[in-house]
């Protein structure tokens, strides 16, 4: 996949009248980290998960749809121009219909139409509901039909109790399938903390002087306050986790999938 450059990111921010504070809030990174990524000289590399997120934000400006990578968006725009499409909705509708006809035709010729609807098991990850835990993935068979782009996660610990007690299995939507894959305050996500997974609520709070001096904070463009991103538990006996590195997350807990 074609990757964007720091120069393209800065030009995009300038063209859309957005500043680095806004980008810091969207990515969960500290303002100083953003400055290091976009520095004119001796810049630090942008982590791949964060780069993909920025590409999707840029794609939103290019197509009005953020679920594509920036490289994919450029290809779609080129195809739309080539075929004379003005509306992305019309282009996607025709493409989906053409692809569906091809899938049905292929399935019928193979004599196995029902296999398209089969969904016997989904990926099962393990995550801490306390301190982050490192475990291998597995598979899990749900007792009901779940939508595409979902995976399961079993919790170990009581930090998300009483809503999600120790041992419970929750369904999450994969990050790369979301229309707008940006972290939203108050929502629950599965975070990857250096290879260890934890289910937490994403939130922000006013930064302490020590956190400011450590370069962990950013200035919110909404209220002008200096804040830090934190990962919170539903069980108040567990302390918040202050985010010290760019946030990597795997999925979002949609309450509609976990009734």
From TrEMBL:
It comes from the Bacteria. InterPro entries: LexA-like, LexA/Signal_pep-like_sf, Peptidase_S24_S26A/B/C. Residues 147-204 form the Peptidase S24/S26A/S26B/S26C domain. This is Peptidase S24/S26A/S26B/S26C domain-containing protein.
């Amino acid at each position: 996949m074609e990757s964007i450059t720091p120069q393209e990111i800065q030009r995009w921010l300038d063209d859309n009248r957005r500043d680095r504070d806004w980008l810091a809030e969207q990515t969960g990174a500290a303002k100083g980290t953003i400055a290091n990524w976009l520095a004119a000289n001796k810049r630090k590399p942008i982590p791949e998960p964060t780069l993909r997120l920025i590409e999707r934000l840029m794609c939103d400006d290019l197509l009005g749809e953020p679920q594509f990578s920036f490289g994919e968006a450029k290809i779609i725009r080129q195809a739309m121009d080539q075929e004379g499409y003005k509306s992305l909705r019309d282009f996607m509708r025709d493409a989906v219909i053409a692809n569906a006809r091809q899938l049905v035709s292929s399935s019928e010729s193979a004599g196995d139409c029902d296999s398209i609807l089969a969904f016997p098991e989904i990926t099962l990850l393990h995550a801490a509901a306390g301190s982050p835990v490192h475990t291998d993935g597995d598979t899990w068979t749900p007792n009901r039909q779940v939508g595409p782009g979902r995976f399961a996660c079993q919790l170990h610990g009581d930090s998300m109790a009483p809503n999600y007690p120790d041992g419970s299995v929750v369904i999450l939507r994969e990050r790369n399938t979301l229309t707008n894959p940006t972290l939203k305050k108050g929502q629950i996500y599965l975070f990857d903390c250096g290879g260890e997974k934890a289910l937490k609520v994403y939130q922000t709070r006013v930064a302490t002087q020590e956190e400011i001096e450590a370069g962990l904070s950013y200035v919110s463009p909404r209220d002008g306050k200096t804040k830090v991103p934190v990962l919170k538990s539903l069980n108040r006996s567990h302390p918040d986790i202050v985010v010290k590195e760019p946030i990597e997350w795997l999925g979002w807990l949609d309450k509609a999938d976990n009734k």
